[in-house]
């Protein structure tokens, strides 16, 4: 097997901190977003009723994970402040984000033959119907990107509106890897002959 980089793993990239030997941090993928089970009744989810395959692989191979927060996330609160640091974000912007989330969760809104990106579709749907000044739009755009980048791994302006929400969905707690996500790549690479630094 040929690998162009000087390491295996691709987006899985765990490094040890020089200032704290034994402490690792993930520079790429970090979380298992929902250990399972998969959502039943979701036609796109072939894993319905089963555990997340990444989590299951970790358990089968003795790779330790750590729960970060639960599905309900009642123990986690996201607070945002305007740039002066003194006032919380207006309630109307939180309400707008809730509307966007509801819009995204209804897949019928995206069953269209469009080349538009997800960010533009959301802006056309909501920005015009809201009394938002320039700063409100900036903050709303930032929060939309922050939330959906976390879930989708890409900027909303780089995501196809046609295919948003078409991936399999897993419920359950969210976990990280005690020794870093690269433990998965290391386990998969066992027994393989891999030549590093082999650009093709």
Can you walk me through this structure?
The protein has helices spanning about 55-60, 90-105, 120-125, 135-150, 180-190, and strands at about 15, 25, 30, 65-70, 175. The chain is of the alpha+beta class and about 200 residues long. The model has no long low-confidence stretch (mean pLDDT about 80). The longest helix is centred in the C-terminal third of the chain and has 19 residues, at about 135-150. The strands form 2 sheets. A 3-stranded antiparallel sheet has the order 3-5-4, covered by helices on one side. It is globular. It folds into 2 domains: about 15-70 and about 170-190, no CATH class; about 90-160. The chain has 5 helices and 5 strands.
| Fraction in beta strands | 5-15%
Question: Counting H and I runs of at least 4 residues, what is the number of helices?
Answer: 5
Structural class: alpha+beta
Cα gyration radius (Å)? 20 Å
The end-to-end span amounts to 12 Å
Oligomerization state:
single chain
Q: What's the total count of β strands? A: 5
Helix content: 25-40%
Order of strands, widest sheet: 3-5-4
Low-confidence stretches: none
Shape annotation: globular
Mean pLDDT figure: 80
Q: How many individual domains? A: 2
Largest sheet: 3 strands, antiparallel
Secondary-structure element string: EEEHEHHHEH
């Amino acid at each position: 097997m040929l690998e162009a980089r000087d390491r295996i793993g691709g987006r899985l990239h765990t490094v040890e901190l020089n200032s704290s030997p034994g402490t690792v941090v993930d520079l790429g993928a970090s979380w298992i977003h929902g250990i399972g089970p998969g959502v039943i009744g979701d036609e796109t989810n072939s894993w319905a009723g089963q555990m997340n395959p990444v989590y299951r692989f970790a358990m089968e191979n003795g790779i330790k994970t750590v729960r970060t927060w639960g599905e309900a996330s009642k123990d986690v609160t996201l607070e945002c402040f305007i740039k002066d640091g003194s006032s919380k974000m207006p309630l109307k912007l939180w309400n707008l984000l809730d509307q966007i989330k509801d819009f995204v969760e209804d897949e019928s809104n995206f069953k269209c033959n469009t080349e538009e990106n997800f960010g533009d579709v959301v802006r056309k749907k909501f920005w015009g119907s809201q009394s938002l000044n320039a700063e409100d739009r900036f903050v709303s755009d930032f929060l939309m990107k922050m939330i959906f980048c976390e879930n989708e791994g890409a900027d909303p302006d780089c995501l196809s509106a046609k295919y948003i929400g078409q991936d399999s969905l897993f419920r359950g707690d969210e976990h990280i890897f005690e020794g870093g996500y690269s433990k998965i790549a290391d386990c998969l690479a066992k027994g393989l002959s891999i030549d590093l630094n082999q650009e093709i």
